Amino acid sequence: MRGFFPSSTVAIYMARLFLVRTFAILFALVLVLQALDLLSESGKILAVPGNGQAEILRYVSLRTPQIIARFLPFSVLLGTILTLTQLNQNSEIISLKAAGLSAHQVLAPLILASFGVAALSFAFNERVVARATATLSSWDDVDYGPMPVDRGERTNVWVRDGDNLVQVARVAGRGEATRLRGITVYNRDGSSLRELVTASRGWREGGAWRIDNAERFTVATGVRERLGSLKIAGGVRPDQFTLQNVDPDGLSFAQLSTAIDDLTEAGRPTKALEGALWHKLSGPLSAVLMPLLAAVAAFGVARSGKLFVRAVIGMALGFTYFVADNFALAMGNLGAYPPFLAAWAPFLLFFLIGEAVLIRTEE
């Protein structure tokens, strides 16, 4: 290990430069992007009676973690390029190579520091971003009105029963203990609405759903009548209500893994969610790639006039990785790529590209 880091002083110096620039760029990006986002959303928030400065600050506290998580890898890329460009301009890279250090040894402090950034990013996503995303999604669902009390319930769930549609305002519990609140059944003939059946509550009974205080509105006659208690939706399983809406961005790694297991047990498709689960690991690790992709800016003589071109090439490699990563995730969601490949293929591909460029040009 000491052979890979011949000088602890130089390693600490380079890591400090890298971290300071990375987080300074992240702070500037978050400040600008949060201001722009607030300009588009503040009107919607303040349009709700009773909302004011407190609600604006609440929105900022929920939206800022999402922006940080999304743009941290970009900040690592730009921070690496600025660090390596400065070291190159000051001939510090040349001094390190003249002392016998290889290109990998020059980059080693930055790569080690980026591992720390990746670990911090993963922990931040798990503890802060997932919760903020889930809360902001629930608030957005009520158009920034009074925040619903989170009791582990699912809201505004839609399921299909043949041609009929069933909407439930709130779903609580799991399995045979599932309870429904605010039920609306849209009975249809093909695509034509025939009648609406509404009920205040419902529960599982005898392979169907017993609803209470039911009323029926017949579209053709305009007649409304009370039905009392009756059974509906015999073809709808409990998991169709409880596992209907799984937002991978609003769940931690462990919670998403549990949701995938439940969906698999219920025989539901999980490929897109499995890709999102793997990406919760590969996403933060993208920070480790950035020093390797930006390394082209570190080497070459600064006085040759090609330093700016090298920095642009490093930036282009980094941004191409993000494009490829988003493309692979989209293909995974469509089922064109296996989940593991959708999450990890861009990372492995650009790792090999970065190594090939570094070895061919400097080693």
TrEMBL record:
Keywords: Cell membrane, Membrane, Transmembrane, Transmembrane helix. InterPro entries: LptG, LptG/LptF_permease. Signal peptide: none annotated. The keyword Cell membrane applies. The chain crosses the membrane at residues 12-36, 67-85, 106-124, 307-324, 336-359. It holds the Pfam family LptF_LptG. It is a multi-pass membrane protein. It is found in: Cell membrane. This is LPS export ABC transporter permease LptG.
